[in-house]
Amino acid sequence: MTDLAVAPVLPIRRRRVRAPSPIIALAIVIVVAVVVLAIFGRWLEPHPPQLQTLLDVNQPPNHDHWFGTDALGRDITSRVIAGAKTALLGPLVVAATGAILSSLLGIASGYFGGAVDMAIQRYVDFMFALPGLLIAIVVVGVVGGGYWLAVAVLSLLNFSGDVRIVRGAVIEQRPLPYVEAARTLGVPRRRIMYVHILRNIVAILFANAALDFALALVALAGLAFLGLGSQLGSPEWGRMLAENKDILFTNPAAALAPGVAIVLVATSVTLIGDWIYDRFAYSGRSGR
Amino acid sequence: MASAELPIGSNDHEPGLLEGGPARNAGAVTRSQWLRKYVRNRLLILVPLAFLATVAAFGLTKLAPGGPVAALLQDHPTSAAQIAQIRHRYHLDDPVVSQYWHWLGGVLHGDLGASIISNNTVWNEITSRIGVTLTLNLGGIVLAILLGIPFGVLAAVYRSRWIDRAIVGVSIFGTSTPPFATGIAALYLIAFKLGWFPLFGAGAGFEGRARHLALPVIVLGIHGMGFVMRITRAAMLSQLEQDFIPFARGRGVRRGRVVVRYALRNALIPVATAAGLLFTGLLTGSVLVESVFGLPGLGTLLVDSVTNGDFPVIQGLVLIIAGWIIFVNILVDLLYAAIDPRVGFEAVKA
What is the ipTM of this complex? Predict the structure, then answer.
């Protein structure tokens, strides 16, 4: 508290944002492409994703079926495209919930300190030790719920790490002069916390959200892989991986294509998250 | 700043589960007195956590639509009398609390009930499969640590050079790649194309076991390696910034010795605490890996029992897994207090 008044005057520096490296650019291109597929995929699929052509089962890749067909003669390319929407929607919800809850709890924890901080941190420690995906497997399996139950379980279990990061960032923001200035001007505390400080840590929220997104994508694919949280026959990447595992040796592309899709999107989003963190997360802080 | 390097999870120690902080103003306490109190508090937390775990395991059955009756009957046509008989046998007509007490009594006597599907006791089902899962997990963790720490050190020492970039890139790829995807790729490329390892099953005898489990262990190990690497790198970077590093170099201590004896020794503290997370992470991973490689472990048992609604088995597994996670977390907390001489120092000073 006392060191508020002696915070050093920072030289004003124009923040320079360097152009992303080629790898980040590639990651952005991949993510944009998948988003386009998720929105417009219906018109881009070469074949109907549910169409079973039983005369063309287990075909290796050819000019009509780029990644071949599965055991029911369904076109792998079309099914991977059709899976993009499910692959993005759930993780988006998980990431958004995580960002909202972690900023509410993390800012309160970092700004108030004391008993509030203690309570929130103990709760976070507890949540942190819980294996989210394992709990999702059991709950979704037992309740027999679908995709959205899986999304709900992951949304509620996977944001504890974010709370810690947000709290750390808020503790760094709190002693900065702009906070003191706002307080002197009589700005309401809630506004300082959730408008002024939030604006300065928003890059961290986005970086966290990107990582949550990637984790949720992988977790939901894992659930679908185990046959949970998805409908039989629905074109989901994780489920396709499991279904086409049996024809791995006749048409490997059928199992590898959805696998590569998961890995590409998850890695790209993680890379973008890291990049956002490195480039933008230092606004308003001293040093750097 | 170390934790700021790590958008994932973060690891600036934070002793896990519900910290029962010992009183700070206990007058003149020695560190050993403080430690004794710390250990006692940690162990006391076991009681509410164990209670919570049993409630969770029991409560799960109440979440299922139709409950055990539906699971037992599957799709067979039945009469009301049969349903009443089943309800009576599983005490489903009693109040929930007394059902819980009845079940808990059995659990405390080591009776977890019998599988609805196979009729084997849950205890037999679990003990016959736990070996595979333990081997996978321990093997994966050892591999993750043996690979992750050296690469993490290398990345920190060569910060921002190409080695660092390559290692960080591989670690991002490793952590964001689900083990079932790597598993399938490995199955195809290494087991099928190259024929180095067997394709499915757990194998018999020690040698067969080892050959069958090698590839799954590698897949899990690589999955965990990225995480260990990130934490080691961040912890090493914060150590290498410390004043004692140039000082030691100035005294003429060789570079390798400074890195290993001065920096790495301190950096291992956060790495050791993160190992607890690795345990839970790989436990989840092994569920997926077992399913890819068709291994008869606890993971496949969990998935089967969950899909079949085999409640006694699910309850038994939830208890075992919860117990395992609580055990690992408390162990990590104790380990942390034991290896970091600074823990408890504040209390001693006060």
Answer: 0.79
